[in-house]
Amino acid sequence: MKPSLLSFLLLTTIGCSAKEPQPEIIPPAQYEAQGAAVEKMRERLLRENPDRFEARTLDHGGRTVRYRWFAPEKADKPLPLVIVLHGSSGKGSDNRSQLLAGTGALGAGVWATPERQKDHPCFVMVPQCPPGEMWTLTASWTSPVHPLSPQPAPALADLMALLDDRLKTEEIDPERVYLVGASMGGYGTFDWLVRQPERFAAGIPICGGMPEGQAAKLKDVPLWIFHGENDNIVPVEESRRAFSQISAAGGPVRYSEFKDGGHQISVHAWIDPKVAAWLFSQHR
């Protein structure tokens, strides 16, 4: 039987002090009311993203790393960088699908809109995972245990080199590099964060999962985890377990669960100005 939300709440509150983080439950009435705004933004970004983001490549050990890059028009000081890891539907070699497929249009594009840039100017990097690969070497997303692989997946090793390159060539504030992603990108966010926690000021993994036994590595990285209660692709237990373990390790973690929500709930987090305000307030 699938663990209920009530049992999860009891497990996370028994023996906890009042100061320890508690999960936030978002009722359907609250997020479903955003449906029209989400769809309007998605349709807009499907049109705007390809022109707003420059298509670029990097050679890394004979592999071509494809990514899209957005830079503000005016930057008189080093600015934050948001790295967006797409889900499975964005895979390919066209350097385009990561901006358009699935929830990718919103997940990638919202950070570069004029209204978001007005409040939070930043660079945005949206790499594309090659076909047949993943950001992690996780064998199965439904497995109750998936250990950290000894070496990063080739696609993630590419991103590590790509970040090195961007930090050398752009006016990026190294104290404000943020990593966000949903679904496969949520797993990739966790995987990269536990391998190089010192590189990031904060992370937002959505509908993903943390490699087993790695919570202590995230005790100094602010995280805001999201998941849908009725996700039929990535079990909600993945995020609940990560939240519980990181909390127990003393990490600065938040967890928001969309009651009755499915796998596509990331769009509600991406358009929420409170989420953006939280992210950009974090510094290493």
Short account of what is shown:
The chain has helices at residues 5-13, 28-32, 35-52, 104-109, 114-119, 154-169, 184-195, 237-248, 266-270, 273-280; strands spanning 24-26, 54-60, 63-70, 79-85, 123-127, 172-182, 202-206, 223-228, 253-258. With 284 residues, it is α/β, with parallel strands linked by helices. It is globular, with a radius of gyration of 18 Å.
Strand content: 15-25%
Figure out the total of helices.
Answer: 10
Largest sheet: 9 strands, mixed
Number of strands: 9
CA(first)-CA(last) distance: 41 Å
DSSP helix fraction: 25-40%
> How would you describe the shape?
globular
Strand line-up across the major sheet: 1-9-8-7-6-4-5-3-2
Unreliable sequence segments: 6-18
Q: What order do the SSEs take from the amino end to the carboxyl end, as H and E?
A: HEHHEEEHHEHEHEEHEHH
Can you walk through the features of this model?
The chain is of the alpha/beta class. The protein has helices at 5-13, 28-32, 35-52, 104-109, 114-119, 154-169, 184-195, 237-248, 266-270, 273-280, and strands at 24-26, 54-60, 63-70, 79-85, 123-127, 172-182, 202-206, 223-228, 253-258. A nine-stranded mixed sheet has the order 1-9-8-7-6-4-5-3-2, with helices on both faces. Helix 7 (184-195) links the parallel strand 6 (172-182) and strand 7 (202-206). The protein is globular. The termini are far apart.
How does the SSE layout of this entry go?
Blueprint: H1 5-13, E1 24-26, H2 28-32, H3 35-52, E2 54-60, E3 63-70, E4 79-85, H4 104-109, H5 114-119, E5 123-127, H6 154-169, E6 172-182, H7 184-195, E7 202-206, E8 223-228, H8 237-248, E9 253-258, H9 266-270, H10 273-280
Parallel strand pairs: 1-9, 4-5, 4-6, 6-7, 7-8, 8-9
Antiparallel strand pairs: 2-3, 3-5
